Amino acid sequence: MTGQHRVEIDTGKPHPARMYDWYLGGKDNYPVDEAMGRQMLTLDPRVPVMARVNRAFMHRATRWLARNGTRQFLDVGTGIPTEPNLHQIAQEVAPDARVVYCDNDPIVLAHAAALLRGAPEGATDYLQADVRDPDAILEGARKILDFDRPVALSLVALLHFVSDEDGAHDLVGRLLAELPSGSHLVMTHATADFTPEESRAATEKLKAAGVTLALRSREEFTRFFDGLDLIEPGVVVPHLWHPELGEPVAGQDDGVVPGYGAVARKP
Ligand SMILES: C[S@@+](CC[C@H](N)C(=O)[O-])C[C@H]1O[C@@H](n2cnc3c(N)ncnc32)[C@H](O)[C@@H]1O
């Protein structure tokens, strides 16, 4: 593991990684995360379905990429391990696949050893870094990944935690600039397009608790892919992206999941 720091868990305010773990039914969260998670459920009871739909999108996109020749993955905003994790999907298709995980939350660092347990040594690593510091991510990732060969940059359910003031679009551009032709960008992102009132209330509640939620429109999401070739079916709600590559998530069709997902290739 690279970029190691002393792990200090702040249990006084909710954290996105731990709330997401709570939505997924995990045990690596604290009362403050559960309390905020329950508040989100009062605004939209389908939040746990959204979390599972999002996770299932990551599985299918990774499977699609591995089956179509991608052998290197850079996954930023990894989250607390929930099996199967990205490297397990990729290495099931392609045992020689190399994976670098990255997150800025100390609780994810605390679980990095469990995440990497059993993974092929030297082919899978964890890097503690913030997406707002792309140079640190690129420097760490180069230790495992060969940037002369295509890399799938996976930013799944991450960038709605990064504001425009922090330059979300430029950060993606900076990371992609270092990757060669044939690389891919994989993203999901929450939006207020479908449920504006609930989304506004959720954003305010999270802000009051110290968590940034930068919901983006379809147009703003699509702009992350400028200069790239979108893979069919393009920008869609996540469960409609290549559904044939995985199992449906219970409840995914009961109303719109307020998010977008897409995969695109760097020409
Ligand atoms: C909702 S979880 C998504 C986990 C996983 N990508 C998935 O889709 O299943 C979001 C993750 O992004 C991480 N994150 C949030 N802001 C970040 C930042 N500025 N830099 C790196 N990671 C960040 C959180 O710690 C959390 O683990």
The biggest sheet, with number of strands, parallel, antiparallel or mixed sense and barrel status, is: 7 strands, mixed
Instruction: Please give the alpha-carbon distance between the first and last residues.
Output: 32 Å
* C-alpha-based Rg, rounded: 17 Å
String of helices and strands: HHHEHEHHEHEHEHHEE
The CATH superfamily name is Vaccinia Virus protein VP39
* Overall pLDDT score: 94
- Could you list the spans in which at least 5 consecutive residues all have pLDDT below 50? none
Percentage of β-strand residues: 5-15%
Count the beta strands. 7
Structural class: alpha/beta
Helix residue percentage? 25-40%
CATH architecture: 3-Layer(aba) Sandwich
Q: Count every helix, treating DSSP H or I runs of 4 or more residues as helices.
A: 10
CATH topology: Rossmann fold
Description:
36% of the residues lie in helices and 14% in strands. The protein has 267 residues and is an alpha/beta fold. The chain has one domain: Rossmann fold, CATH 3.40.50.150. The chain has a 7-stranded mixed β-sheet with strand order 3-2-1-4-5-7-6, sandwiched between helices. Helix 4 (86-93) links the parallel strand 1 and strand 2 (98-103). Helix 1 packs across helix 2 (31-43), helix 3 (47-67) runs parallel beside helix 4 and helix 7 (134-141) runs parallel beside helix 8. Bound molecules: S-adenosylmethionine.
